[in-house]
Amino acid sequence: MTELTEKRENGTLTIGLSGRIDTSNSHEVEEAIRAILEKQPAENVILDCEKLEYISSSGLRVLLRLHKELGDLHIINASTEVYEIFDMTGFTEMMKIDRAYKQLSVDGCTVIGEGAKGRVYRLDDETCVKVYFNPDALQDIQRERELARKALIKGVPTAISYDVAKVGDSYASVFELLNAKPFSWLIENDSENIDNYITMYVDLLKNVHAIEAREGELPDQKAEAMVWAQWCRDYFKDAVGDRIYELFEGIPENNHMIHGDFHTQNVMFQNGEVMLIDMDTVAAGDPVYELGNIYQSFVAYNEVNHDHAMEFLGMSYEHTVYMWEKTLELYMGTTDRRILDEAENKAKIVAYARLLRRTVRKDSENKALIANCEEKLRELVGKVDSLAL
């Protein structure tokens, strides 16, 4: 019979399961669990599956009976194999079941990308991990995996996480990126070919934007952008804030895909193929949102302190500004300064509105950046009739 362990602490009873629970021993296991429960009532009961190798349908029926009688049964440390059994049979929807996650260390690992929700490290020659800033990120991980799956099916070259791990107290997605290098590294270390890299970068950008999603298939970027717009309206409390809101409100609905964080740390070169990572910001919306984010990453965030470009993107400020200028030309398909200036002003308003909100909320001591965003927005709102590209 499988051996059981028990531990009582602060009204919680933890019963440890081990080995296999199947038809041959499920009855004995149930009797042993009930004997432990009868010794002394407990407010909470936890089944620790750290050493459980397998559970059959007869074992699952034991847990189902216990769950119905106790009303609240918590299962912890389920291995990947055991968790898949619980998930496939619907147990994860009936009770709280926590997986066991292997611990990884990123000490000394190279950072190859960073987004709004996490930082990507090169773990070894074949493996990368994205460590999430939010310590309770399991929902974010599931969301990103689903968005990456949808993007891959629609033809976007990307990497889908094949495992979840823990790095310290944080959760991390594990995925394969064999021989992949971010475009930031390529540009900084092979600047003679910068124009070739920008061409590949923009080709991928256009391919992403050409993909049309079904209604409601992807998150609506406009809904998120209107949060920025309302915040700006409340922040300025004058005609500038009202105008920002009006301009955002006038951006048309659009079901085409945008990445949402399309900078050179999230665009990778792997075995001759250009690919995207950090898919948690994928949405549907007008391309002005994407160009605004690109301008924010390459110029707006770095123009007060040029060192930010190297700290954030691993590139010099001169290279990030050049990246923006050439990206805009190639994306718009023209060198006509009038057309480019008009498109750039629209992207700038999106960029500075978003950056102002982010800086005030998360880096309020950065007075110079805040003042620059305010000044730019006051200057720009009268230069455009709409934000639609």
Protein described:
The protein has 389 residues and is α+β, with helices and mostly antiparallel strands. The chain has three domains: 5-99, Transcription Regulator spoIIAA, CATH 3.30.750; 110-176, Phosphorylase Kinase, domain 1, CATH 3.30.200; 180-380, Aminoglycoside 3'-phosphotransferase, Chain: A, domain 2, CATH 3.90.1200.10. Helix content is 47%, strand content 21%. The chain has 14 helices and 15 strands. The strands form four sheets. It has a five-stranded mixed sheet with strand order 1-2-3-4-5. Strands 6-7-8-10-9 form a five-stranded antiparallel sheet, with no helix packed on it. α8 (221-236) runs antiparallel to α9 (239-249) and α10 (287-300) packs antiparallel against α12 (317-332). The chain is elongated. It starts with a strand and ends in a 9-residue tail after the last helix.
Give a short overview:
With 389 residues, this protein is an alpha+beta fold.
